[in-house]
């Protein structure tokens, strides 16, 4: 059994909570005491139906205001897969929450109300999912029961969205007509839509192929921690020096020739250690410890790669940045801390090329700053070289966060486009 | 060439993520510690820590917030496990907090030291100048926890501000704090109760005996079975009877209920949990029943 992480974007109006509630309920991930609590609260508030959004809106402020303000993580499993849902609010003022939820997602579900069709917010959700390079997109056309399960209406929406998606870098796009309320095409294929030849939503989630979404080509091993037992009793352990980390790309094998950055020195992998013993190979997302044949001065923040396939050692970075700070604005000359893989440096904003309207994709080249939830293309200069790939090639070596030194808050997320 | 499918099982993915989180803490903080209660989640956390730094020893101490109302089986287990691993154990004692007047003991039948633990915990963190504290909390446990970050910032008063959390993207964690502040780190955030049990089975790690079905003298209160013990104040209208029970969570004897069970092996426990329709906290924790936001309120104050 493997894990599929997916993000859902939308508001209560789209039936998102109903959909999640149904997935959780039908997979028995909602328990009786949780359901009773929700039923009790719904009754107390005079709501006529059991408001399943109460399951996901966990904070007091959210329940009081009837809104979702943050990413909630939900879990369910079927015999085929474990699922982690990053349930994100869909409104534009919560763009940073959706970006956060999408950053680790293998798949994003975008909900469309069949009556309303493709709205501004559907386009925004699709844009953000593709900006964050979520490998699989599912357009769940919901409330099909309210359009008489019309194939024609579904096709209209599919055509309109497909035309829009061609402007994005959407790789895998799947359309499923559903009724979350009645369960049509959610878990099982619906008898109300015999014209639909595809699989149910859950069947798709269970079967979508994600193993090859990871980068298995470019060897990238950011050194996280150096393990030195300093044992006085065991000679073998006394000299043990292992480089611990989580593989960010490619497949490492014992005996492989590798290069260390920043030194550029080459050596070979002597062994790949885990608690259980040596393993023959390591790939993402394994956490392992490498031992190398030569004594090279290696510390946290360094990168191990292949001599003929290296990331760029860059101090000039071009990136799309989603700004997440309430008070502070991003503008030229802003100084920040940048955390990329296991390396932390300082960064200076050299230029803001444009601000992107997340609804229309219009580029505003006259913009002079980015505020909360705004996205733009930015040039940064860093105090030390970072070992980067384009985000489109590897999300783990192409993504970074920005931290404000004054407040220590995480104020931005960046996706590298180019570097030198 | 043989095409190889690089699929990773769910337990391996969760373990790799937890190891990454632990190494990140060890690399970026001066004085981390791991909260160890002897409960199943902290047992799993400790196992992951053992793996993350192997063959080196675990590079941080453990801390146990001891309410003085623990199950003796659990304390015995705690001490044995600590000795096996050769790690340092810091005990922060609620009794000591009461004796020094830091907190005032509740009285009456429903008296519990649950809420008092927060002061003891925060004092323990401050006294030892811990800057990162691993907790075994999982997001599937409770709805306030479902919104908590893996690296959860606490101000100098130990408070959690749920509306002002740091965004957390990819596997990049913001570890920056000022003196006096700390970060609670939850490496098992993405694990479910069943994942924890599957992991315990796979790893063959020992757990305290009270997790297995055993005969115990209990009495009923609010639909929960509480142990008949000297630290638990029982009324005359709460008759004691013997039952075959086990514990789904391990906490303070005064507020942790047992469930009726015949499961005497990990396999049987997994079957039982897979079939159950009530959450572990709902079934067994009086402390969460206080109100809809009981956990959120305690967490804001600095609770686990």
Description:
The complex is a heterodimer of chains A (420) and B (304). Chain A has 420 residues and is an alpha+beta fold. Chain A folds into 3 domains: 2-213, P-loop containing nucleotide triphosphate hydrolases (Rossmann fold, 3-Layer(aba) Sandwich), CATH 3.40.50.300; 221-305, Elongation Factor Tu (Ef-tu), domain 3, CATH 2.40.30; 312-419, Translation factors (Elongation Factor Tu (Ef-tu), domain 3, Beta Barrel). Chain A has 10 helices and 23 strands. Chain A has helices spanning 16-26, 32-44, 53-56, 60-65, 95-103, 120-131, 151-165, 201-207, 235-238, 395-398; strands at residues 2-10, 72-77, 81-89, 107-113, 136-142, 172-177, 221-222, 225-227, 242-246, 251-253, 257-261, 266-274, 277-279, 281-283, 287-292, 303-305, 312-323, 335-340, 343-356, 363-364, 375-388, 399-403, 410-419. In chain A, the strands form 4 sheets. In chain A, strands 7, 8, 9, 11, 12, 13, 15 and 16 form an 8-stranded antiparallel β-sheet that branches. In chain A, strands 2-3-1-4-5-6 form a 6-stranded mixed β-sheet, sandwiched between helices. Chain B is an alpha/beta fold and 304 residues long. Chain B is built from 9 helices and 10 strands. Chain B has helices at 10-28, 40-53, 72-85, 94-99, 117-127, 193-203, 266-275, 280-284, 294-301, and strands at 32-35, 62-66, 89-93, 132-134, 151-154, 182-185, 214-221, 224-227, 240-247, 258-260. Chain B has a 6-stranded mixed β-sheet with strand order 3-2-1-4-6-5, with helices on both faces. Chain B has a 4-stranded antiparallel β-sheet with strand order 8-7-9-10, with no helix packed on it. In chain B, helix 2 links the parallel strand 1 (32-35) and strand 2 (62-66). In chain B, helix 1 (10-28) crosses helix 2 and helix 6 runs antiparallel to helix 7. Classes of the chains: A alpha+beta (420), B alpha/beta (304). The interface between A and B is large, with 77 and 63 residues.
